[in-house]
């Protein structure tokens, strides 16, 4: 009996101790929802307006995908150098911008995730402009989806045209040179030009389509520079002749400006070839300017222009590929792209979105949309820096009359290929 009482007393004490412990120690709660996955997006910012628009788009994405958080980083200085360094160090973002010019090299290095397996019929990849989507294909795989684009078009001062008795824009390069003579003004007849007919940018990014007009090429299949061919020189000759002999065109440095659109806005030239980005710039900076746009005048009876585009690509080493694809598919999907391009800052790479926004009927933007079908993509092989830098330096020399055009281009091509060979 006494032994049973002691057992009962021990049980009561044990229960009491357990009760006190439960009251003083808070047991951890079991989480009912998982924390969102955080993915990193890197790009660059062209303007505060563009940056705010992207941030709003990312907030909309997070609202629709509460399981994913996006950390955005703008890299505005030495962007590609930073990205390449991080890819080597395995610290690259999950998703990042990739310019078409830089795409061939990165696609060849197997550091990008092929997107083919992520595509579904609902995503409708066929809706993208073929010229744009093809810029991000390599070795039968698709590595990027273009977020937007711009071609080049002719901008012209309508009041200057009216004063010169010109009623429509030039449709071919012979007309452009003729118009330039009529639009070039020496008001005081002192030999000092007050306004040039045409503003020229002597850079490969603006001259590549003139090389292609007669069958020339920027690079060969093996990646070597090829712009100094006889066919390639024909298109460039017209640019040099107009600048040197006719003196009806001017470079931005000749008139103290920083761009073709600024030359036009300040009344230094009556015509300039620029990208879609020049429309809001001219409207905001030079509201008094009455300007219009037209397709780039044909050369050798061949339509031509350049197309510049940037894609969203995925880091092949991303630890969150499913979430990264969700972000890419939203930003380049019909809903996200409609929001991104609705302000006219950039043109949609999806045909259906362009139709929805009415850009084919927009008087200022329709020439840019029309040009994408025949535009030359801004690409120059795996090692574009060697090709672009050497061309720009030597072509400028030829423009200034420091050496004949064939000599300048031959030197540029040889130097470019020497550099390429040294880094392959």
From TrEMBL:
<keyword id="KW-0762">Sugar transport</keyword>
<keyword id="KW-0813">Transport</keyword>
<dbReference type="Pfam" id="PF01547">
    <property type="entry name" value="SBP_bac_1"/>
</dbReference>
<dbReference type="InterPro" id="IPR006059">
    <property type="entry name" value="SBP"/>
</dbReference>
<dbReference type="GO" id="GO:0055052">
    <property type="term" value="C:ATP-binding cassette (ABC) transporter complex, substrate-binding subunit-containing"/>
</dbReference>
<comment type="similarity">
    <text>Belongs to the bacterial solute-binding protein 1 family.</text>
</comment>
<dbReference type="GO" id="GO:1901982">
    <property type="term" value="F:maltose binding"/>
</dbReference>
<dbReference type="GO" id="GO:0015768">
    <property type="term" value="P:maltose transport"/>
</dbReference>
<protein>
    <submittedName>
        <fullName>ABC-type sugar transport system, periplasmic component</fullName>
    </submittedName>
</protein>
<keyword id="KW-0732">Signal</keyword>
<dbReference type="GO" id="GO:0042956">
    <property type="term" value="P:maltodextrin transmembrane transport"/>
</dbReference>
